[in-house]
């Protein structure tokens, strides 16, 4: 099967056979309904009459141009650039410079929020993965970015919140060594409670062995925050309660 990505990228760059325009901050993207609308229920509903002049143009006045550019690019090539703003028309970078780690975080966060808004699940997962990787690699920066991430995330987004809690709990000593961190835990008590739960789980269950087979599996508390997930299935929850009580 031939690789369609170069063809789709060519259609995006040239605008050939475009039958839909997405407009943001004065920039117009000549796109194709068959490509855009089948990947996003938001855009699919828009062309059915949800927007002004919906038959030919979708205006996005509340979104940032750089984010929309990444969204549109992903719909054609299944990827996006989070190190700059690649210009679709002339293939040059708008910034032309390294934007820095914090800017990369904000770029991916913007894409994640947009993917949630436009209902583009693969893009949302890609942005989520990049955000989790950033959190894992930049734990020392968390005191300066956690509030912005936490309050921006959709209410039902648990994976990114879990990644934040995991990073804070692993680096609790460093995290608490500055005033910004104390302010975060004061202003966002849900974070403090979640970190405490995770730390307590690690203390209680890190050396727990199964009475049935004497395995050393213990508890997988790296990936589970609010419930206990046992590596060894011989162990019953009641057995744990009994063994925790002298």
In a nutshell, what does this entry contain?
With 246 residues, the chain is mainly alpha-helical. The protein contains twelve helices and three strands, in the order H-E-E-H-H-E-H-H-H-H-H-H-H-H-H. Strands 2-1-3 form a three-stranded mixed sheet.
CATH topology of the largest domain: the name is Potassium Channel Kv1.1, Chain A
How many helices? 12
Q: Numbering strands along the chain, what is their spatial order in the largest sheet?
A: 2-1-3
What characterizes the major β-sheet?
3 strands, mixed
- Computed CA radius of gyration, to the nearest angstrom: 23 Å
CATH top level assignment of the largest domain: Alpha Beta
User: How far is the N terminus from the C terminus?
Assistant: 65 Å
Q: What structural class do helix, strand and pairing data support?
A: mainly alpha
| Low-confidence spans | 88-99, 216-246
Number of domains: 2
Query: What fraction strand?
Result: 5-15%
Number of strands: 3
Pfam family, one: BTB
Domain BTB: 18-76
Organism: Penicillium nalgiovense
Protein name: BTB domain-containing protein
